[in-house]
Amino acid sequence: MASELVKKTQSITTAKDMRESTHLIMKPYANWEEYLTPAPLSIAVLGELVFLSSNNEFSINKNPPKDGYKYIKYPESFRACLMQVCNSGWGAFNEAHKSMDQIRLHASTVPDHMKTTKKILLQGSDEVIQAHLPDQLRNIQAIADDCVELAIAAEKKFEDVINIIQELLEACVNAKSCYGEELNEIKKKLEQAKLRKQLAQEADELSMKMMKSVEKQLGEAHESYKKAMDSLPSGWEMIGMDFVAGITERITGLLNGATSVATKPINLMCDGARKVKGTYDNIRGKDDAANDIDIINIYSKSGEILQTIKILGQYIKEKDIDWKELYDQKEKEPKTKFASGQLERIQSSLESLPDCKPKTNALSICEKGINICQQLAECAPTGQCSREKTQEIICNWKELIKSARAFDSKSKSVTKSPSMTPKPPMMYKQENNSERSGKKSAGKRATENARFRIEQTRAQLDKTRETYEKCVENMEKNQKELTDILVTMRNCQIKEIDFNTTIEMLVKGMDAMGKVKEQWKKLVRFFQMVSNIVKTSMSKTLNNFLTTSEKTQKLSYNSKLFSKDLLYNQAFQASNIASLVHMISETYTDVSNKYLMDRVSSLGKLMAMDKSKPEFEQERLQLQKGCDEAQKGILQLVIKNKKDFERSADARLKKIEGELLAILPAAAPEETKAIKEAVQAGFTEEEEDA
């Protein structure tokens, strides 16, 4: 049963399946429709500014900064400043299209490098791996570095537009006494813009710290493996393999967590400076204690904690405890010593992290597990234990496994890690080669785990659906606000358009461009992450592999094979991120070709035309019509993608259930209920890490 379940799980968690799972889980967080939808409106705003510039001519240079203007070229002419904004916007959208198309082509080549990497790892000798693996990893890193440059170039173009608009608005505020306009709202918007810049810097720093944390955790993973295997009781090879799976799951969780940090949205559409500041403080941590990195580090240990708690379960039956199996007669010590030691090690590693709710939960689970180990150890030598004491231990363990499963479910929710994952290739190969005869508990463990993962997958996809739904609703709300301003503008006669109306358009343009810039910033972080993962693989994991001796290993799955699996996991995650970016870049390029570039070209033509000629108004109306059609086309794409997402989520769950439920024996109602409650507790609890 255990072998069959593992094979079935492996068959539904291929590289293609895992890429699709990552796309599904990350869809609400790497949702480019949210950016693509306002893109035609951003172009329309620039078109209206060209129109407005024909009616507003005055100097904003009455009160210039001491050091002069950094971005505005023509402060004597407000009309020229508006044209500078439009020209920069046109250049930004042009650069974005070219960069994204190149990123799409680059990202499409990563899977081939990943296939070669896997082949070298699985079939190559130490010498072959040492000679050829670095080249494949460097190829992936070179692609990532090229894409970083392309993304930064596009991001900078949009940042230039924002800088020009900000400086123009500041100049208008300084000229307030000259023109007598009430510009308090502009001051608030500028304050928001500065705080958004702080947020972006915080996010950049957080992303880099996250990758440094991953490098440190990789070193600790090797140490954890060594300590666990040194203390593993004889005959526990299968249990040891299960526990090591928890360690590799920690790295997978960390890498997925790092991806979630890169996609975490910064709220750019705030109603006031106070709200933005609140968001800023929230991201930093309410008391500057635990941040995203600490939270992810804590939750990444959920796999090890759960696997350790499950070890105790092999001795605990429904109404009794297998005392005979629990005590090692040869070593004259209880077999709970291993589980207790691992929980103490995890507990110790948590102590250095800042205090927060996830840490408290993790420490509580470890503490309760250690207490149960001590209670079992007291009675194990004689096998004598009162009925009341036995029932208390069994009851405590059932509550503990429920808590551990809830914590693991919460971990999947926070790190955005797929619930159903394959065994790493070398571990899977070794397990298939190992004898499982006489291991009845292996089948029971595998069955319980399969049921838990199915329920976890169901809850995770439900949560993702709910989040995606909210993202689409939020996008539609922001869309309506921008459209309302544009409609108001278009309904104005040229003589009715005053200075304040123009300023309002500039503010909206700044907001729209800010959203665009944030998306490009995310792409930069994505590729920096891929590059850092590869660097870490070569500097840390590959070095550990080459310097590790195979001597004195208790398991056939030794340190070298463990290092191979870590190398594979890192390369796979880098490939997964590249696949995610390929999906994003393909969507952007397709939409840009269909809906954006013709409008951008029309904007360029409009800027070059004589505003006094009738052809100007004709071109302006054509641009308006084109932008409206593009907006409707993209909204239809959003609806189509949402339906595709729902179909894919349903198909994924159906595939998992169809493959696994068919071979699983019927479960007791109490067990099913306990699993559902644990999973729901993890996915519905309010996230304290914002």
Fold topology:
Elements: H1 2-11, H2 15-26, H3 33-36, H4 39-53, H5 78-107, H6 110-123, H7 126-174, H8 176-179, H9 184-230, H10 237-263, H11 273-284, H12 292-299, H13 302-313, H14 323-326, E1 327-328, E2 333-334, H15 336-351, H16 357-379, H17 387-415, H18 425-433, H19 440-491, H20 499-547, H21 559-608, H22 614-660, H23 669-684
Antiparallel strand pairs: 1-2
Helix pairs in contact: 1-19, 2-21, 4-5, 4-19, 4-20, 4-21, 4-22, 5-7, 5-21, 6-7, 6-21, 7-9, 7-20, 9-10, 9-11, 9-20, 9-21, 10-12, 10-13, 10-17, 10-20, 10-21, 13-15, 13-16, 13-17, 15-16, 16-17, 17-19, 17-23, 19-20, 19-22, 19-23, 20-21, 21-22
Report on this structure.
By secondary structure, the chain is mostly helical. It has one domain (2-684). The protein contains 23 helices and two strands. It has a two-stranded antiparallel sheet with strand order 1-2. Helix 9 (184-230) runs parallel beside helix 20 (499-547). The chain is elongated.
Would you count the extended β strands for me? 2
What count of domains describes the coordinates? Answer: 1
Q: Into which percent range does the helicity of residues fall? A: over 70%
Q: First CA to last CA: what distance?
A: 41 Å
> What's the arrangement of strands in the largest beta sheet?
1-2
Contiguous low-pLDDT stretches (5 residues minimum) are: 177-182, 267-288, 435-440, 686-690
Let me know the average pLDDT: 79
Number of helices: 23
Class from secondary-structure proportions? mainly alpha
Task: Give the percentage of residues in beta strands.
Answer: under 5%
Radius of gyration based on Cα positions: 29 Å
Shape: elongated
The oligomeric state of the chains shown is single chain
Provide the succession of SSEs: HHHHHHHHHHHHHHEEHHHHHHHHH
* Biggest sheet features: 2 strands, antiparallel
Biased composition (Basic and acidic residues): 445-455
Keywords: Coiled coil
Coiled coil: 176-203
Region (Disordered): 408-455
